């Protein structure tokens, strides 16, 4: 059995000083395929120290030097493309098409970050003040398991461009997919200590990293509960934080929507990455005037989705991460039924013929917005269908959630859809199509987080402002 016992600290791949282990399973078979050895507080301290020592020289690099190093990272990620895709599919079951997108976008983050490195980003004149943007300092980047390369590259690219050194803590539930990422980072040839990678659980590794006095910034993509813990840890030393947290995003189908377009849009937004995505539109709001028609169309579309081996190009829905995730999803479906929900497609158990592995039936359940399946983030292929009487109620239901990360609107009248969008409490709203926009701000309202990422908004999060008068 493969053993994953590697950290990357101070420019060297080295074994963990910790002894706690992590079982690594295949989403496809459900069987254990590796054992990970997790870091401990000593590893975390060593990584922060390496980043601290490397900071002055890295912050002093020219913009051209940073562009060159960012390109080295893009090239190293491209060279490890096949390994990254294979690990994504094996460990958490995303389809081959989605894995290819995730990995290709990972390398593009480093290319895009080079375009942000202009003098105007770092210096401007305001009256007698020369306003400078300077790197915050050592930055901790905590990333989730549903696409390790994408999240690591997205955060690290702008942090490095800003002149910060970084310590990356990938999710311990994504250790397999993070291995080729670690190799790519080591092969990119950045100065020792500029990038460090430590595996470990929140206690002790995460707690050390997020409360360490030498850490100036923490950026996490993860659960709302974890984000709150990190915010508490950061406050004593006034660390800057970017928190990209949970979501329970609405997809509003307005009564003038063309169902031939709206239904695939709603299903695709809700079930991207097997539903294992914070931006998933898992609450579909349908107008009472067309309720039966739209529910029937949604049920037909969800029921027709091909579930199976994610390596098969015809597969639309693969398995979920692990048995714990499978059990969690089954619990939510059962809860939905017990609370009076009507199963329109899917339901409990494995799809027929897919009893091995962590395969879930894509499930559509008609319910009301006060029920558990409509309020809590499930992180799997489960969609709640909610009925509204009029536009005003649709907006009220969409906003009736502790989250506010994303929203989707299907409509015939674009002006009307835009007016509805302006009344939604969400950081991103997409009308009639899912748009890939890595330069537009990304982040949430309410308990979906603090701050914004992507493009110029992402690099700003790793800069501090200084005014010099002369």
Outline type: globular
Give the fraction of residues assigned to helices: 40-55%
Instruction: Quickly give the structural class.
Output: alpha/beta
- Give the total of domains: 2
The rounded Rg comes to 22 Å
CATH architecture of the largest domain: 3-Layer(aba) Sandwich
Major sheet attributes: 7 strands, mixed
Strand content: 15-25%
CATH-defined topology of the largest domain: Aldehyde Dehydrogenase, Chain A, domain 1
**N/C terminus separation:** 65 Å
Taking pLDDT < 50 over at least 5 consecutive residues as the criterion, the unreliable ranges are none
CATH classification, class level of the largest domain: Alpha Beta
Q: Could you state the CATH homologous superfamily of the largest domain?
A: Aldehyde Dehydrogenase, Chain A, domain 1
Helical run tally: 16
How many beta-strand elements?
A: 21
Lateral strand order in the biggest sheet: 15-16-17-14-13-18-19
Average of per-residue pLDDT values: 97
Catalytic activity: an aldehyde + NAD(+) + H2O = a carboxylate + NADH + 2 H(+)
Active site: 244
Pfam families: Aldedh
Enzyme class: oxidoreductase
